[in-house]
Amino acid sequence: MELRLYDTLRREKRPFTPLDPARVRMYVCGPTVYDFAHIGNARPVIVFDVLFRLLRHLYGAANVAYVRNITDVDDKINARAAEEHPNLPLNEAIRIVTEKTERQFHEDVDALGCLRPTVEPRATEHIAEMKTLIERLVAAGHAYVAEDHVLFAVASMPDYGRLAKRSLDEMTAGARVEVAPYKRDPMDFVLWKPSKLGEPSWPSPSGIAAPGRPGWHIECSAMSWKHLGETFDIHGGGVDLVFPHHENEIAQSRCSFKTPVMANYWMHNGFLQVEGEKMSKSLGNFVTINEELDSWGGSVLRFNMLKTHYRQPIDWTQAGLKESGREISRWAEAIQHDLEVDESGRDAIVEALADDLNTPEAITRLRGFYRNRDFAALSAGMRFFGISIGVESIQGRKHKRLYVEPGQYTITGQPVLLKVIRDDGSVVEIDKDSKQKIEQLVDARNAARKAKNFNEADRIRDELHAMDIELEDNKDGTTTWKVKR
RNA sequence: GGCCACGUGGCGGAGUGGUUACGCAACGGUCUGCAAAACCGUGUACCCCGGUUCAAUUCCGGGCGUGGCCUCCA
Fold first, then answer.
1. Which of A188, A211, A303, A433 is the 20 to 30 A CA-CA neighbour of A456?
2. A38: which nucleotide lies closest, measuring CA to C1'?
3. Which protein residue's Cα is closest to nucleotide B66 at C1'?
4. What is the ipTM of this complex?
């Protein structure tokens, strides 16, 4: 099976050939840990998890290295720490914020069905590597010291801008960058900068006396080097990172190591909007993964994300989630009756994904298995896709949307009381007493039906209907009830 | 202003130089005491204008629209 991937650098889809099949190497830009991750952050995490699973399948789980960094040094972190813990020393406050956020991030992405990367390096643990790179760049004439900063000289790299497809002239023309007097070129970017008093700081490289801290881009060059080498196979992230972040990573790494490439395949997921609008705190439509997990199970969120090809823009809507939830619930109910696994289901998914992660096509194939009642294949395919069907993966933490079967009083073995948020937003809660009453009425109706007293049976149906309960008479003679949508 | 994407049926969303994507919703039917569920079936879409071609939704050019980047941002 040939894997084909789209490479942003060349703007084309082409066969994937790893540098070393015994060690396939992928680096993805991870979170800056200062706040809950939002649903837009979830996109690359999910997309590259799918790629990770695919690579593990094709090359062997032990032969794939997936590095996703954790950025724990950043102005936003400092600001958040000072705000939340004004009475603590800044560095201690920072540690509290970053540890808490990191834990939260892991909980969130675990719930989304994502495997942990092979390595999750922290920026603050790679200061030494960053300084080594910086000193190399200065020594080679690609960077210079100015007013306790170290800056990368973009003019020293002939094809700077190739990833973003824009020339230095174009960029300088529309320059809205900070005009720092010590920059040789307006596009030069910071590798190292002095720390203010109280801020995290480390001894500076390149003979700078004042303590300082790294610029934003250098950490990824340092960590990918440390854990994957001077060049590696795949580098991923969101499209918004193409410029300047990835462009600058390329500049740093290639000029440090004198290599023609940093990574052979650059992959970027598309942007996400919420209900047709850009997600922003000012618009009040900022959606965190954590909040979404209250309303929808991780599998629903994951499925909803993968319904759209990773390079396409995606509009994240409640209507779409509702549709996804309905479809996944049906599959989950079907699979419960069939615990066997047919690996041909997995192979069909692998085949679809091998074409530049064509997840919509993979889902189309899963739908085919469902339609043909090939639940063993469906089960295998979903498993490969990372979609699990436990109650907690299907339902949100707060809302219970599946029906219970009377008499069993369970959803897949878990005792549960129902709380349903209906389509119109109203809430129906089923407690022990109302459940008992419902079941009494159901029994009474079935007795009436048995006696062919259909007027009475219909009257009871209406009575339950008024309580927002709908009945379904199953083929096997049982009656199921559920809360009206 | 510069650069980069995207624009498919009511909605979501693949794909293709000429043949039904698929799913949701809708409608029709089967089944059912009723109803629901389930199952079967129906729908002929590809922003606009040019060009290339025997043939374009699919390639090329232009326009319009939306979004992203150029400043922290997945």
1. A433
2. B74
3. A276
4. 0.90
